[in-house]
Amino acid sequence: MSDLHRPFPLMAKSNRERSYSVWVIALMMFIISACGSAETTLVVSETSDTYYQINQSIESDQAIARLLAPYITDMNSRMSQVIAYSETPITRFRPEGTLNNLSADILRFRAVRELGHPVDIGVANFGGLRAPLPQGNITVGNIYELMPFENMIAVLKLTGSQVQTMADQIAVRNGEPVSGIRFRIEDGRAYDILVGHEPLRRDRTYWVATNSYVADGGDGISVFTEAQERIDLPVLIRDAMIEYIRARRHLNYELDQRIRLSSSTSEE
């Protein structure tokens, strides 16, 4: 078994082995450096994979455990910090859920703060909300479970016609988390669209806050790749969530009919 494939519990070495490893690493770095300066093109002719199962049957390496202990203690302390209290569980659902509404509101709120001008619509993605927020205390760790990705906030300028297309693409999916927009889904299309309190106008443009994954066309909202303008904000969505929720301290999110289904369309 090569050292590269050994699990952590088998990594304790003698002084002689550690000295040997240092020389191996130095040699590998020299080879990589030499390859980088040569003009020879290397082609992979064959690959193979070996999988090792890591489970409770592997004994703990006490040296590694002692090394990691202070970091684990510090991480647990950070993750257990209470940032807010929720009256009810905050969960995702289609066409609308309280977690849907909260996540989309956060995107739009933070985009307004960063840009200093109104942002009309917020759109998150249902699949990106990986865990509900519990009733009671909400911790930093809960937000990491909810949003484990390193996605940033992106703001797009769309025409009114593109917003209609966006709503239709959301309707095909039976809803996505939205803020600042309301509509009814019937037969896979969006109807009765309101942005703010006004009917959608095809002759004007709208600012839409979303995440970098969806802005790149992820989760089927391909119209975002045709935006008139795109502004990428240097803000992690997870950080925006922690700050927004911490500032409010007390959450009591309710559904408010942002997306409605006609009687012929089934809920998820």
Sum up the structure in keywords:
35% helix, 268 residues, globular, disordered N terminus, 4-stranded mixed beta sheet, 5'-nucleotidase,  domain 2, alpha/beta, 5-stranded mixed beta sheet
CA radius of gyration is: 25 Å
Helical coverage, percent range: 25-40%
**Mass-distribution shape:** globular
Write the CATH fold name of the domain at 82-261. 5'-nucleotidase,  domain 2
The CATH H-level superfamily of the domain at 82-261 is: 5'-Nucleotidase, C-terminal domain
Give the CATH architecture of the domain at 82-261. Answer: Alpha-Beta Complex
Multimerization state: single chain
End-to-end Cα distance: 48 Å
Share in β-strands: 15-25%
- The spatial strand order of the largest sheet comes to 5-2-9-4-10
Largest sheet: 5 strands, mixed
Describe the SSE topology.
Elements: H1 15-37, H2 62-79, E1 82-86, H3 98-115, E2 121-123, E3 136-139, H4 140-146, E4 152-159, H5 160-172, E5 178-179, E6 181-186, E7 189-195, E8 198-199, E9 205-211, H6 212-215, E10 229-236, H7 237-248, E11 250-251, E12 259-261
Helix pairs in contact: 3-7
Overview of the structural elements:
- With 268 residues, the protein is α/β, with parallel strands linked by helices.
- It has a domain at 82-261: 5'-Nucleotidase, C-terminal domain (5'-nucleotidase,  domain 2, Alpha-Beta Complex), CATH 3.90.780.
- It is 35% helix and 21% strand.
- The protein is built from seven helices and twelve strands.
- It has helices at residues 15-37, 62-79, 98-115, 140-146, 160-172, 212-215, 237-248; strands spanning 82-86, 121-123, 136-139, 152-159, 178-179, 181-186, 189-195, 198-199, 205-211, 229-236, 250-251, 259-261.
- The strands form three sheets. Strands 5-2-9-4-10 form a five-stranded mixed β-sheet. Strands 8-7-6-12 form a four-stranded mixed β-sheet, with helices on one face.
- Helix 3 packs across helix 7 (237-248).
- It is globular and about 65 Å long.
- Mean pLDDT is 86; it is low at 1-24.
